[in-house]
Amino acid sequence: MAITPAYCVDEEELTSLKSLLEEGNDEIDQDIADAMRRHLSRAAELQDMEILLPEEVEWATGLEGTARQMAREMGELAADIRRGVAVLALRPGEDAAVEGLERQGALADARRADAEALVDATRRLQEKDLRRLAAAEHRVDPAWLVVVKGMAEYLDSALGDGHAPTPEEVALVAVMEGRVKGADGSMARLAGRLRRGAAEFFAARLGEEEALVGALLRQADRADAVRATVEAFMDSLRRFRDAGSSETAKVTTGADNECQDMIL
Q: Of 1, 17, 182, 39, whose CA–CA distance to 88 is shortest?
């Protein structure tokens, strides 16, 4: 990476760097340092857990991105400070600013190191969970899938035979729809996460992790199959419900017409 010479630092940038010496910046840095310690402590606790909850994996995934950005920004800030110090050190009367900025540069380096440690910690958590998912025998109970497929076939067959759903059946279908709602989305997210994990965490180590990558991709395919089954079931439920609603509308319209005739 090219390094900008110290003499390229303009007065506006020097003024901006000196603002780091204003009162209150030390307190802000301390707050950041405390937050980083809390995050690292929680990551260490989660590393000792056998199974991570979905929200804990989400926490690690989101925090990795934040920590990665912070590491980059703190590294850039430390480099800017060093260039500014190199210029100010050549000017008379700037000893206090140089000393203060050197301290701020050391703090920026420390926060960068903390952020890099947090990136490593959160990635270890994600890798641990991906390994568990790769080894999982079933993400969804196979018996449940058999029931779902059978129910979809039954509903479609009933409609094909001309069955008119009753209000009670429509109400039951609404209950079933509510219970499976969202399962297709969660399976789609899982499949995406498994494929991204295989690519981002293990593809570069394909020689030693080839079996793991294959297992993750197979689990992603299974998640896709479950999603397709749920979507087909939801379609069957909607068709059955809509057919029942149509029949109810016909009955209601007929009754309204009879009442109108009586009034006339």
A: 17
Tell me which residue has tokens 């900008």: 4
pLDDT in tens, 194-246: 999 999 999 888 677 888 999 999 999 999 999 999 999 999 999 999 988 76
CB 63 within 8 A of CB 39: yes
Domain boundary among 103, 135, 167: 135
Length of the chain: 264
| 54 lies in the same domain as 166 | no
Strands (E), the chain: none
Give the tens place of pLDDT for each residue, 31-45: 999 999 999 999 999
Q: Which domain holds residue 197?
A: 142-255
Sign of the C-alpha dihedral, residues 160, 163, 165, 168? negative
On the question of pLDDT at 128 being above 60, the answer is yes
Are 83 and 9 in contact by the 8 Å Cβ rule? The answer is yes
Determine the number of helices (DSSP H) and then strands (DSSP E) in the chain: 8, 0
Hey, what amino acid is at 56?
A: E
What is the per-residue pLDDT for 256?
44
Please state, in angstroms and rounded to a whole number, the distance separating the CA atoms of residues 238 and 159: 12
